[in-house]
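Chapter summary example.
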Amino acid sequence: MVRFEHASALAQAGEFDEAYRIAVGAVNNRHTFHSVSVVTRAQEFGAMLTPGGPAARAWREILADLKSPDASLPALSATQRKPQ
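The structure predicted for these 84 residues follows.
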């Protein structure tokens, strides 16, 4: 989750390529469990990318490969997460 926060900060600063690189590292890390919260945060990150940009297109492909989370488990919304 910390990597997504880092990637999100980079995206907000307009550093989309670096943000994408950090987010991909977070998703592809073998120690990352693709929980509902992680997948939700990945989707929120994707919404921050420039819609037609190359990073956004590549990110959508990565999101498509993520295992769909169990919808019966609740995910924290952005307003429910506490800042670290």
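To summarize the output: The CA atoms of residues 6 and 19 lie 8 Å apart.
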